[in-house]
Design brief:
By secondary structure, the protein is an all-alpha fold. It has 6 helices and no strands. Helix 3 runs antiparallel to helix 4 (61-84) and helix 4 (61-84) runs antiparallel to helix 5 (91-119).
Protein backbone atom coordinates (compact mmCIF):
# COMPACT_ATOMS: atom_id res chain seq x y z
CA UNK A 1 0.00 0.00 0.00
CA UNK A 2 2.77 2.44 0.92
CA UNK A 3 4.49 1.81 -2.41
CA UNK A 4 1.39 2.86 -4.37
CA UNK A 5 0.93 6.03 -2.31
CA UNK A 6 4.38 7.31 -3.27
CA UNK A 7 4.46 9.89 -6.05
CA UNK A 8 6.49 8.10 -8.69
CA UNK A 9 8.51 9.79 -11.39
CA UNK A 10 8.99 6.84 -13.72
CA UNK A 11 12.31 5.90 -12.11
CA UNK A 12 13.48 2.32 -11.60
CA UNK A 13 12.45 0.40 -8.50
CA UNK A 14 15.27 1.91 -6.39
CA UNK A 15 13.73 3.95 -3.61
CA UNK A 16 16.55 6.48 -3.29
CA UNK A 17 15.06 8.64 -6.03
CA UNK A 18 11.56 8.15 -4.65
CA UNK A 19 12.57 9.20 -1.14
CA UNK A 20 14.12 12.37 -2.56
CA UNK A 21 10.76 13.33 -4.07
CA UNK A 22 9.57 15.08 -0.94
CA UNK A 23 8.95 14.67 2.76
CA UNK A 24 5.85 12.54 2.18
CA UNK A 25 7.76 10.16 -0.05
CA UNK A 26 10.60 9.87 2.46
CA UNK A 27 8.14 8.84 5.18
CA UNK A 28 6.42 6.35 2.90
CA UNK A 29 9.77 4.86 1.85
CA UNK A 30 10.52 4.12 5.51
CA UNK A 31 7.17 2.37 5.90
CA UNK A 32 7.71 0.46 2.67
CA UNK A 33 11.10 -0.70 3.95
CA UNK A 34 9.57 -1.76 7.27
CA UNK A 35 6.80 -3.65 5.47
CA UNK A 36 9.43 -5.62 3.57
CA UNK A 37 11.06 -6.62 6.85
CA UNK A 38 7.93 -7.92 8.58
CA UNK A 39 8.03 -11.47 7.22
CA UNK A 40 11.76 -12.05 7.91
CA UNK A 41 11.24 -10.60 11.40
CA UNK A 42 8.26 -12.91 11.97
CA UNK A 43 10.20 -15.98 10.82
CA UNK A 44 13.13 -14.97 13.00
CA UNK A 45 10.87 -14.66 16.04
CA UNK A 46 9.42 -18.12 15.32
CA UNK A 47 12.96 -19.56 15.21
CA UNK A 48 14.02 -18.11 18.58
CA UNK A 49 12.44 -20.83 20.77
CA UNK A 50 13.86 -23.87 18.92
CA UNK A 51 17.27 -22.23 18.61
CA UNK A 52 17.31 -21.43 22.32
CA UNK A 53 16.39 -25.06 23.06
CA UNK A 54 19.26 -26.22 20.83
CA UNK A 55 21.71 -23.91 22.62
CA UNK A 56 20.64 -25.31 26.01
CA UNK A 57 20.65 -28.95 24.88
CA UNK A 58 23.35 -31.61 25.10
CA UNK A 59 24.14 -31.46 21.38
CA UNK A 60 27.78 -31.27 20.28
CA UNK A 61 29.56 -28.00 20.98
CA UNK A 62 29.78 -26.89 17.37
CA UNK A 63 26.06 -27.46 16.86
CA UNK A 64 25.29 -25.41 19.96
CA UNK A 65 27.71 -22.69 18.82
CA UNK A 66 26.01 -22.59 15.41
CA UNK A 67 22.60 -22.42 17.08
CA UNK A 68 23.80 -19.54 19.24
CA UNK A 69 25.06 -17.61 16.23
CA UNK A 70 21.85 -18.20 14.28
CA UNK A 71 19.90 -17.20 17.41
CA UNK A 72 21.81 -13.90 17.54
CA UNK A 73 21.11 -13.41 13.84
CA UNK A 74 17.42 -14.06 14.44
CA UNK A 75 17.28 -11.56 17.29
CA UNK A 76 18.99 -8.91 15.16
CA UNK A 77 16.72 -9.72 12.20
CA UNK A 78 13.68 -9.23 14.41
CA UNK A 79 15.19 -5.97 15.68
CA UNK A 80 15.65 -4.76 12.11
CA UNK A 81 11.90 -4.11 11.82
CA UNK A 82 11.78 -1.36 14.46
CA UNK A 83 15.22 -0.20 13.32
CA UNK A 84 13.81 0.47 9.85
CA UNK A 85 11.48 3.05 11.39
CA UNK A 86 14.23 4.82 13.36
CA UNK A 87 15.12 8.40 12.49
CA UNK A 88 17.77 9.08 9.86
CA UNK A 89 20.27 10.06 12.57
CA UNK A 90 20.38 6.43 13.68
CA UNK A 91 21.73 5.19 10.36
CA UNK A 92 24.84 3.67 11.95
CA UNK A 93 22.70 1.66 14.39
CA UNK A 94 20.44 0.54 11.52
CA UNK A 95 23.43 -0.72 9.56
CA UNK A 96 24.83 -2.45 12.64
CA UNK A 97 21.56 -4.30 13.25
CA UNK A 98 21.23 -5.34 9.60
CA UNK A 99 24.82 -6.54 9.23
CA UNK A 100 24.75 -8.34 12.59
CA UNK A 101 21.62 -10.23 11.46
CA UNK A 102 23.24 -11.33 8.21
CA UNK A 103 26.52 -12.27 9.89
CA UNK A 104 24.73 -14.24 12.61
CA UNK A 105 22.75 -16.26 10.12
CA UNK A 106 25.59 -16.85 7.65
CA UNK A 107 28.31 -17.70 10.17
CA UNK A 108 25.91 -19.83 12.24
CA UNK A 109 24.85 -21.84 9.20
CA UNK A 110 28.50 -22.23 8.19
CA UNK A 111 29.26 -23.60 11.67
CA UNK A 112 26.36 -26.07 11.27
CA UNK A 113 27.82 -27.18 7.94
CA UNK A 114 31.32 -27.49 9.39
CA UNK A 115 30.05 -29.54 12.34
CA UNK A 116 28.33 -31.87 9.87
CA UNK A 117 31.60 -32.32 8.00
CA UNK A 118 33.39 -33.22 11.20
CA UNK A 119 30.66 -35.59 12.41
CA UNK A 120 30.18 -37.47 9.13
CA UNK A 121 33.37 -37.69 7.10
CA UNK A 122 32.74 -38.46 3.47
CA UNK A 123 32.65 -42.20 2.79
CA UNK A 124 33.62 -41.86 -0.84
CA UNK A 125 37.26 -40.95 -0.12
CA UNK A 126 38.17 -44.66 0.22
CA UNK A 127 36.05 -45.82 -2.70
CA UNK A 128 37.75 -47.51 -5.62
CA UNK A 129 36.43 -48.75 -8.92
CA UNK A 130 36.97 -52.34 -7.82
CA UNK A 131 34.68 -51.90 -4.78
CA UNK A 132 31.92 -50.30 -6.83
CA UNK A 133 31.70 -53.07 -9.48
CA UNK A 134 29.12 -55.75 -8.87
Amino acid sequence: MAFFLMAGSGQPAGLHMQAAGGAGNADLAAYFTAAGRTYPAFVSLVLVAPLLAAVRSQLPRLVRAGALLVLLGAVFAAASLPAALAPAGWAVAQHLVNYAAVLGYVVGLAVFWFSGLIANPSGNARATLRQNRS
